[in-house]
Write a structure and sequence with these properties.
Blueprint: H1 7-26, H2 34-76, E1 81-82, H3 83-91, E2 100-107, E3 113-119, E4 122-133, E5 138-147, E6 165-172, E7 192-193, H4 198-202, E8 217-220, E9 223-224, E10 231-232, H5 243-269
Parallel strand pairs: 1-2, 3-7, 5-8
Antiparallel strand pairs: 2-4, 2-6, 3-4, 4-5, 6-8, 9-10
Helix pairs in contact: 2-5
């Protein structure tokens, strides 16, 4: 006869099952395969190299920018030269940006152009006026700032000289293209400009026979025209220099990735306790 199974059998069965379940739980996570580990390690090392290279490049750019700023500062404090001497330097490929220059000629006041600008928090326009030099060449002079309501020359007639004038200021090389996608397009038919396109500004200007357009602008120095407008000296002599910030960012990311890589390697090869 068969009797009821002893409860110990059930207990034994439960003990074996529990042991098996416990063994599965203590096994923990399966280690990453060698191939996946090496792939991850390769990407980490590549990322470290790229980030370190970007940081080093920004440091090099920082030294270059600081040298350029020092050169510009030295150039702006030089004695002004004549327009002919500066044109020769420009033609020879020498830097003329922010170089002091003196020009003498007669303004073509009817051909004013207006560049959107601000001055001391006030919105308005910088007045660019062609100046005819003695030999017939024409150079555009940024005479300075006028507020919106004084854009019309009829409202500032005192500041529209007809006689020969001499202007001392800084040479400015025009940009070759629109600075950014977000910069509005110029409106030459309205004489409104949002970036200094010299060729577009010169359209419609009657250049005397035998004369030529000077390939750079002249920003007039500090001072007010008769009647108070335009106000000269609006040139901002500065260049953005964020390279140190960028270098710190790239090096910081590189350091973080280095730490993560070391932790990954230690986790892979650490010995169980």
């Amino acid at each position: 006869m068969s009797g009821p199974r002893p409860e110990g059998g059930r207990a034994g069965t439960g003990e074996v099952a529990g042991t098996a379940a416990g063994g599965s739980a203590t096994a923990g996570e399966q280690p990453t395969s060698r191939g996946r580990f090496l792939t991850a390690l390769g990407f980490c090392l590549l990322g470290i190299a790229i980030l370190f290279g970007l940081g080093t490049w920004q440091v090099e750019r920082l030294f270059w920018k600081e040298g350029l700023l020092a050169e510009i500062d030295q150039r702006t404090h030089q004695a002004p030269v004549g327009i002919d001497a500066l044109r020769k330097r420009f033609a020879a490929g020498e830097p003329v940006e922010y170089a002091p220059v003196t020009v003498t000629g007669r303004f073509l006041n009817d051909d004013e152009r207006y560049f959107l600008s601000t001055n001391e928090g006030q919105a308005g326009w910088n007045v660019y006026t062609p100046l005819v030099l003695a030999g017939g060449d024409v150079v555009f002079v940024n005479r300075g700032f006028v507020p919106y309501e004084l854009r019309d020359p009829a409202r500032r007639r005192a500041g529209q000289p007809e006689a020969e004038v001499t202007v001392t200021g800084l040479a400015r090389v025009p940009p070759r293209e629109k600075p950014s996608y977000f910069t509005p397009d110029n409106a030459p038919k309205k004489d409104e400009f949002y970036w200094q396109d010299l060729s577009a500004m010169a359209e419609g200007v009657a250049i005397p026979e035998g004369g030529a357009l000077v390939p750079f602008f002249v920003d007039a120095g500090p001072g007010k025209a008769e009647g108070g407008w335009p106000v000269g000296g609006v040139t901002v002599v500065s260049l953005p220099n964020d390279h140190l910030q960028y270098a710190v960012t790239w090096y910081g990311l590189c350091l973080v990735l280095c730490v993560m890589t070391v932790l990954m390697i230690l986790r892979r090869y650490r010995r169980p306790a």
